[in-house]
Amino acid sequence: MRILLVEDELDMASALGDALSKHNIVIDHVTSVTDAREAVHMHSYDAILLDRQLTDGEGLRLIPELRTSNIDAPIIVLTAHNDHEGRIRGLDMGADDYMGKPFVVEELIARLRAVLRRPTLLSSDIISAGRLAFDVSHMEPLLDGKPLILPRRELLVLGALMKRIGRTVTREALSNAVYGFGDEIQSNSLDAHVSRLRKKLADLNGGVTIHTIRGVGYLLKVAE
Known about the structure:
Elements: E1 2-6, H1 10-21, E2 26-30, H2 33-42, E3 47-51, E4 53-54, E5 57-58, H3 62-68, E6 75-79, H4 84-92, E7 97-100, H5 105-116, E8 126-129, E9 132-135, E10 140-143, E11 146-147, H6 152-163, E12 168-170, H7 171-178, H8 189-203, E13 208-213, E14 217-222
Parallel strand pairs: 1-2, 1-3, 3-6, 6-7
Antiparallel strand pairs: 4-5, 8-9, 9-10, 10-11, 12-14, 13-14
């Protein structure tokens, strides 16, 4: 899961980014409406966390722009102004949810899962292939119904491939699913993550194989 965090309080953004990363969520952080507008046209996000008071004004004004541009990622507004009228205005402008600060990260995670479970966003919470299954809303891989423990990057690779099973995932799309703006990326790090994941799935006899599509990307298929 890749999320855009639009928040100009740097300490808050850093703490929230650290907390969400422990739930295998990739975070891109920007501090203004202008930077958020640019980010959503450069990358595809599963959800957007939007503060109201930003360096260049009211964050809510971004929502109608996104909707008219057919960017339908769910938006959760995060704000210290948690009054009744503010919540109504945010929801009326197109926000999917509205949370007052301070909040508990576990509740934010639960709300993210709730908005992502909507039928237009996820066709199924569970994707199955071979002996594997992937719980999309909880970002959890399963082998024969039991949790499969993987390092964070390999888990993100598997999630991206499972969501597009039987279709080629370009290197760019896979990289976008695994790395955020601030991540340091070595030239061969993505290939290394895929290689380690491929070997683990083979050793476990997971019933799926990862194929390299030379010059394009990777393809996950059910083993024949």
